[in-house]
Write a structure and sequence with these properties.
Elements: E1 18-19, E2 29-32, E3 38-43, E4 48-52, E5 56-59, E6 63-69, H1 72-76, E7 82-88, E8 95-100, E9 106-111, E10 120-123, E11 128-132, E12 135-141, H2 147-152, E13 158-164, E14 168-173, E15 176-181, E16 186-190, E17 194-198, E18 202-207, H3 211-216, E19 222-227, E20 230-235, H4 239-251
Length: about 250
Amino acid sequence: LASRPPDRGLAGMAPKPRVMQRGSFPSGVEVHGEKYMAMTKTLLPGESYHAERGSMVWMSDGVEMKASFGSFGAMFSGENLFKTTFTNTTNNDSEFVGIGVNAPMGSLIPVNPSSLDGGALNVKRGGWLANAEGAEVTAAFLPTRSAAACCCGGMSPLIQKVAGNADVVLNAGGTIVQVDLLPGEELVVDTGSVVAFSSNVQFDVRQVGSCDTCCFAGEACFNTVLTGPGTVYVQTTGYDKIKSMFVRVVDN
């Protein structure tokens, strides 16, 4: 997805969002399901694959599973202190491990950070799911234009930063949409819908509108504004939105 040029359509038109397609996944990865997605990663002899603790659903007999230390920063960015490493200990090139999403109505997002503008990706807390050797997941401060963006932008001040020349899989809720922004182009997003954005993208907030709009339009007081150049990933059904749905059902 990230290597595909932005779809501009007619001259002067705004960037067109694109729904993530199955063909975007790297070779060796088979995807299962439309929502509550899972994936099977084929491991070559000696190959290792890292995933969030507790995300393994199935694996072949020739795969060895070990707990490995992540980083202290992982604890502050929504992950566990330890991650799970799966290694093909045989000479068989068809060993595999199955990984499931960790979010309700979860979908998978494949990305190689090195192919993005800036060579890295800023990810919401808990968004990382798995990666091949060569990728690095660390804690980072949310790069914002203002204090208001840090407090009201829908992302924690401490987020995850994903870098390296290797395939990474993120997870989020609902349908996943990618938008490629040219320099200076802006995308206005509901504060709870931003999953990740490349490191060149600028992050800020904007007041929704008048007092009536804030109180009665159901869109809160602020929207997130992302300014290119770079790539943005948006989810349609975040965890907070799912919680509010259940609260309304219980109240009724």
